[in-house]
Amino acid sequence: MLYPAELWVHWSGAVSGVFAVAQVRCAKVFIGIEHQAMKKRFSPARAAALLVSLAVAGCAAQPSGRYPSLLPRPIESRSDAEPEPVVTLAEADPAIDSALPELRRTIERATADFEKAAQTADRLATAARGDSVGGDRWIAAQTSLAELDGHQATLSSAVTDLDMLAVNRAAEGKPDYPALVELRASAQAAFDAQASRIAALSARLPAA
User: Fold this and answer.
1) What is the pLDDT of residue 131?
2) Helices 178-203 and 136-171: angle between axes, nearest 10 degrees
3) What are the CA-CA distances from residue 91 to residues 10, 96, 168, 174, 175 (Å)?
4) Entry pTM
5) Are the C-beta atoms of 169 and 99 separated by less than 8 Å?
6) 3-state SS track over the chain
7) Is 176 within 8 Å of 163 (Cβ atoms)?
8) Residue from 186, 57, 50 nearest 110 by CA
9) 150 and 126 in contact (C-beta within 8 Å)?
């Protein structure tokens, strides 16, 4: 697509070319008229009349100066940018507001219990280093890991409940609920951290 400045160069070049051709053609006609006049086939009056008619017809004309406007065309001022997304504010949801406090307490309790049990599991894993599979220290460390699994399962259940609240809300065509999204993200981060810690402790014990 040519823009206004490019169109001006293109158009003026084309116009200049047309008038150059016209001027050459008229020059040839003038020479021919002069030649005929010299041969006395045209009277001076007739030759003068022909020259005047050619001039009037535009052979010797120049561009009139009426060029296309350089102002932006309507299509050039059109924006192809994506429209700003419309943010829908979530209205208060009494059902979710009443469920979140209990779920938050469950998550906090499961996280605190896991942290306390993880300290014990870390100590027992250190004590079981070098013990054989099935040894007393190995069994004690494995038992502590099972306790960690239980606390993580409690947290996982809370995450599932949060997911169900979000799914039910989406099924009703409602937007995300900020408080629900925030608690869900926090619970998932805690769950992932617990999974990593359990894996690290398990790696310190001989595999069964």
Assistant:
1) 81
2) 160
3) 59, 11, 15, 9, 9
4) 0.57
5) no
6) CCCHHHHHHHHHHHHHHHHHHHHHHHHHHHHHHHHHHHCCCCCHHHHHHHHHHHHHHCCCCCCCCCCCCCCCCHHHHCCCCCCCCCCCCCCCCHHHHHHHHHHHHHHHHHHHHHHHHHHHHHHHHHHCCCCCCCCHHHHHHHHHHHHHHHHHHHHHHHHHHHHHHHHHHHHCCCCCCHHHHHHHHHHHHHHHHHHHHHHHHHHCCCCC
7) no
8) 186
9) no
Domains in the chain and their CATH numbers?
4-63 (no CATH), 94-203 (1.10.132)
**17 CB neighbour count, 10 Å cutoff:** 10
Kindly list the averaged pLDDT for each block of 10 residues, start to end, along the chain of length 208.
44 45 47 51 54 50 55 67 63 91 97 97 92 89 95 97 96 94 97 97 87
Q: How far apart are CA 46 and CA 144, in angstroms?
A: 123
Q: Say what the pLDDT of residue 85 is.
A: 63
Please tell me the predicted confidence (pLDDT) of residue 130: 83
Residue with tokens 């606390």: 151
What is the reported pLDDT for 48? 57
